[in-house]
Amino acid sequence: MNSVSSFVLIILSLLVLAPGCGKMSDAHNGIAPSILSAPAPTDNPTTLEKVHLGQKLFFDPRLSRDGTVSCSSCHNVMSSGGDNRSVSVGIGGKTGNRSAPTVWNAAFNPVQFWDGRAATLEDQAKGPLINAIEMGMENHEAVVKRVLAIPGYVEEFKTVFGDSSPISIDTIAKAIAAYERTLVTPNSPFDRYVHGETSALSTQAERGFQLVNQVGCTSCHSGPHFMGSSDRPNFAQFPVNANSEYVAKYRLAEDKGRGALTMNKVDDHYWKIPTWRNVALTAPYFHNGSVPTLDEAVRVMAKVQLNTSLTEAQVQDVVAFLNSLSGEFPKQELPRLPDTPGITLVTP
Ligand code: HEC
Ligand code: HEC
Known about the structure:
Largest sheet: 2 strands, antiparallel
Helix content: 25-40%
Bound molecules: heme C
CATH topology of the largest domain: Cytochrome Bc1 Complex, Chain D, domain 2
Distance between the termini: 59 Å
């Protein structure tokens, strides 16, 4: 595809994040007009009550075995939606080997996790609760038991899901996913530029936008979120150029990505093509968080994916463009969590 047609494609697909588009003002589902939300699956419509419940669960450390870790510990929605660490710290100070992606705009991911092992936000949310190095609950029944022991939640689940759908791992995941669908960041300078506000992009960022088309970054990062392309909808090989010195320097080939999941050699070193939206805010970079700065991530990508060396000025142009993809963050307020008067649910 030439750069003009991919430019048109990007513009057309950007309508997804157009200002006001996707605003859930429908009185029928009870969402306040001010809350933007990503499209929801038919079996989990977004409602205001569900979003509020999901937000509480997202912030509640009692959903971890020893009461120390919540989703927000690693996905700080007061800022980047990640933790800006190479690898996250979970229960008992344990660390894994992958970096926490942002939850901002995760609702638009065609697949979740670096290796795409969850198809939906609902599926994804069930994982960390029982991951031994994240929230460490014994099993999903133990999670349900915790939530059932908090009277305020019992009431809220009734209001949100009705008497016929009691508290279960599915309704817990649905509420959390509904909250995550409100974590969208529209109106980045680039969106405003595409909608006609030509002064929203600096000439440097404009040059960077041209460059990512010219050198071929957009053969992978394309569409409204600069994730997959029509040729490569979800996944791509990384590193492509395994001989680059960057591969050893940043340990880019140690983890087999999808190959470790499917145990199929053809998937070795395939990874989800991550979004460029807010990428300027989510350092360090790559699945292992090994690259500390955005300029270095751009140099690495040019070399290991496209076997190209960019000049320093070109790197800065691309970085300026990537910075223009930081959107507007809807204000988050810490929710008041329901109490358990007279007892604690978390014992040492
Ligand atoms: C201990 C840190 C930690 C906790 C706690 C945690 N996460 Fe994550 N999260 C991660 C890491 C690390 C990954 C990437 C793992 C991978 O891809 O293998 C991830 C991936 C994700 C993704 C996928 C995003 C993408 O772009 O692929 C979502 C969504 C997410 N987490 C939401 C949640 C929710 C909801 C909770 C609470 C139920 C939660 N996380 C708890 C660290 C954490
Ligand atoms: C062949 C496909 C492909 C091409 C071409 C490509 N990328 Fe990537 N990009 C990926 C994949 C896959 C990842 C995830 C790598 C990983 O596992 O950490 C990625 C990750 C990134 C990241 C880090 C994102 C994060 O959240 O850590 C940045 C920044 C990036 N690419 C920018 C670029 C730029 C700039 C270019 C062009 C110079 C480019 N990419 C070319 C597939 C590609």
